[in-house]
Write a structure and sequence with these properties.
D-Maltodextrin-Binding Protein, domain 2; 15 strands; globular
Length: 505
């Protein structure tokens, strides 16, 4: 696997997946001199160092979390003399909860950097990792690769470690196989966005009560899901031509954005999209599960179909790639592990991170629980629930394996190709590497403008991106409000930093 990852590193530095941030920054360059960050003498102590790690889950908190924690500690205490305490946090509350914990000074030693590395950095909430990686993280450095680590540099230092879950994504069309068969919709010739109009028209004609297309969620508009540019983490100044471009542009002033907004508006007016798309709590997958929506735009990567079907109550989903795969700057820095500024023992924290990235037994305990209790192995090496256990009755079902350090060490769930991870590596080898790969914008000098611009985007983008307002009249208002908020200052500063970055390549 290490050899395969080195091949990946040769072309790029993920998606996913997918978290983008429109959140303003609240402080200048981080101060990492807090006394709370001073190391305890973990190596010399006879007793294990105690660290606390944010533990993400979807749905209900796993009933057997303590059992799994105890099993992990048997390994970590023996291997590195570190005892870990899991701090359970729902994924859907994670961003707010993480911010509250760090700003409140609560001990937290290891965490996923969400909503993004750059946001946490701008708030001064992260520890620099260069020296720690050199001394205690040699294993993870080998697994991740220096190119990927450099993609998490901010202000000249590394602040995050990319989560190895696949960094390459293409736009994909997710659709209900059941509804396609029921309505007689032939999807075999769909290869791009240009093929969608005819499909949506046919679905609407055959069953107007079904939403022909739906957004992935309220956090991602239809327009933004169809874009193939490099968002550069925050969408406030983007690279429209990721492969060859060198110019930072205001996304919402581009002709590409306008034409996509007009397309979505047309779909809305024809009744293809639900009227409250911009505010509904329904997601694409929940609508497919209820036979209320036919399709939607999502990310595509090998294995995505099984991931989505886990959220559709068994309804069959197929995902068609409709763009070339891309590894962007965003896909690397947006899904990372970090050490918060409230860490009590940075040495112990880095030792545990190194264990997470290199020890398959630990990763599979965290991802799947205990063999024979929470899962069993199939003959082909994949895993499944034990007989009589379902996703609903399982006492350890977290749904966040993609956020746990090194997915490439994890078992593959049944229904997927046993060679799924090799397929992901091959997918990345064929992906376009963004010209901005490794670039991270330091927004500290324009933090006021970032906050103001983010507020404007929050006011306008959902409505424009989901077709609920007239584009010709609303888009100029949006652009003016962005300029009044200072977006040109941000673009200028980001271009300056990007030029400096390109000069070092």
């Amino acid at each position: 696997m290490k050899k395969m990852m080195k091949k990946v590193i040769s072309v790029c530095c993920i998606l996913a997946i997918t978290f983008s941030t429109l959140i303003g920054c609240s402080s200048s360059t981080p101060d990492t001199t807090s006394p709370q960050s001073e190391d305890a003498p973990s190596e010399e102590s006879a007793n294990p160092s105690h660290i606390r790690m944010a533990f993400l889950y979807i749905g209900e908190e796993p009933a057997d979390l303590q059992m799994v924690q105890d099993a992990v500690n048997k390994i970590s205490i023996d291997e590195i003399n570190v005892e870990v305490e899991f701090v359970p946090i729902s994924l859907f509350q994670y961003g707010d909860q993480l911010n509250l914990m760090i700003s409140g000074g609560e001990q937290l030693d290891v965490a996923a950097a969400f909503p993004s590395l750059s946001v946490l950095y701008s708030k001064g909430q992260l520890m620099p990792l260069d020296d720690l990686i050199t001394e205690y993280g040699q294993g993870l450095a080998e697994e991740v690769g220096q190119d990927y680590l450099n993609g998490c540099r901010l202000g000249g230092e590394i602040y995050g470690i990319p989560i190895l879950c696949g960094f390459a994504y293409s736009s994909g069309l997710s659709y209900s196989v059941d509804l396609a068969e029921e309505l007689g919709i032939d999807m075999s010739n769909v290869t791009s966005l240009d093929d969608l109009d005819a499909i949506l028209a046919e679905v609407h004609e055959k069953d107007p009560d079904i939403y022909a297309i739906a957004a992935k969620s309220t956090s991602a508009s239809l327009v933004n899901q169809m874009l193939t540019c490099d968002m550069l983490s925050d969408s406030i100044g983007v690279l429209m031509d990721p492969e060859n471009g060198t110019t930072i542009e205001s996304l919402y002033e581009t002709e590409t954005y306008k034409q996509l907004a007009l397309k979505v508006r047309d779909w809305y007016e024809k009744g293809y999209i639900m009227k409250d798309q911009a505010s509904t709590s329904e997601t694409l997958l929940s609508l497919i599960a209820a036979d209320k929506a036919f399709c939607g735009i999502t990310n595509y990567t090998p294995g995505i179909e099984m991931e989505q079907m886990s959220s559709t109550n068994g309804k069959r989903v197929k995902v068609i790639p409709i763009s070339d795969p891309l590894v962007s700057s965003t896909s690397v820095s947006v899904s990372t592990m970090c050490i918060p500024i409230t860490c009590s023992d940075t040495t112990a924290a880095m030792k545990f991170l190194n264990l997470l990235y290199t020890n398959a037994e630990v990763i599979n305990l965290i991802d799947w629980g205990i063999e024979g209790v929470h899962y069993v192995k199939n003959e082909d090496g994949t895993i499944r629930y034990p007989d009589g256990v379902t996703a609903e009755t399982s006492t350890y079902n977290i749904g966040t394996q993609f956020m746990n350090a090194n997915e490439l060490l994890s078992y593959v769930w049944e229904g997927n190709d046993p060679n799924l991870w090799q397929e992901k590596v091959a997918f990345e080898e064929n992906a376009i590497a963004s010209n901005a790969l490794g670039f991270n914008f330091d927004s500290s000098s324009v933090k006021t403008q970032m906050t103001a611009v983010s507020n404007v985007i929050n006011q306008y983008e959902d409505a424009l991106g989901n077709g609920t307002v007239d584009v010709e009249s609303t888009l100029p208002q949006f652009i003016k409000a962005l300029k009044d908020a200072g977006i040109d200052d941000i673009i200028t500063e980001k271009q300056k930093q990007f030029d400096e970055f390109l000069a070092t390549k």
